[in-house]
# Entry
Amino acid sequence: MSAEALRTEPKRINTPVTNGDRLWNDIVATARFGAADKGGVTRLTLTEEDREVRDWFVAACRALGCTVEIDGIGNIFATYPGEDMSLPAITVGSHLDTQPQGGRFDGILGVLAGLEVLRTLKETSTVLRHPLTVVNWTNEEGSRFSPAMMGSGVFAGALSLDAAHALTDRDGVTVGAALDTIGYRGEARVAPAAFAAYVELHIEQGPLLEASATEIGVVTGIQGLRWFDITVTGTEAHAGSTPMAQRDDALVAAAEIVLAVRNIARENPPGVGTVGFVDVGPNSRNVVPGSVRLQIDMRHPSEAGLDQMEGALQEAVRKAGARAELKRIWSKAPVVFDPSIVDAVRNSAEALGYSATDVVSGAGHDAAHIATIMPTAMIFVPSKDGLSHNEAEYTAPEECARGAEVLFQTILELDRH
Ligand code: HGY
Ligand code: MN
Ligand code: MN
# Structure
């Protein structure tokens, strides 16, 4: 679909509209699967809580007449028939897994807004030309099993299914075994060629839309990211009888690396750097730490920026002494979305009279992988205080409703082309 064709397209009026209250009810209803103490959700991928929300989603889609396919990594594809089933499907969706003590909206809004579009099509007997597929991607968060965006990565060919099945969590449980435990190691072979385009609605997870009082983010791309594991080896020793000058304290060396990650990000704006995981051995008050494992997340909108940051990290590790080892375990290049799909999102927000602005996503998303195999774009709605990966994550009902409506209008726009 050419951008020119989009611009001359008549604005959308008198079409069915999605039901924001029903969407909000679904958000509240699914938050019970893994409900955490402060109002958020702990629903790590392929756990019992994840099975519960998956079963809920599959039942809801089947009740609407969708065919539901589950592939070898547990991705769920719920397809609502279109007038011409020989056409590739328009695809929307996101992820239902969360961070530990995560929020009720991150990923969930995109899947449930897709479900809301299905409900709207059904109740208004609207038949699109294309089939419409709503997807739940397995393990977007990457908290239990690394790397993140695993299901979409296998689907896009960035990670082999066998390699993914063999990856383990901290308890040594493999992805394959976890899929079997919850009954979501599917048989379906779903090919990317079955799809025409992908649009993902997601909360911004940052402060930009709220700060500018803008209703919709027209996401033009996603910044790049690199994940590193660092092990620092020292010498365990008695905390009382070992003189300071004779200590080989792994945690002190690791602390210098943690500060270096913060400084490297500050020196390479708008890059960001985080050490989100620290494991100290033997983790006893009166033993000088002999080993420390760090997990590092670095991001930047450009490859050159990421190279710069990685080089500085290597330097910092070298300074920590020969007993620190750095391993890059994952890298995702910056992504630029397809301009014609981005235009469809922008036109839809405009047709609905919502304020909108272009944004590059700071957070990673399944759309980053899907954009490598089909025309893709994203829609953002605001995050209160820019907060996410936090139980206090919040997007208001009317903001969720606006996002779902832009998603629906975008689908209608794409369906005509
Ligand atoms: O880490 C990310 O960017 C995503 O929220 N999993
Ligand atoms: Mn997400
Ligand atoms: Mn997330």
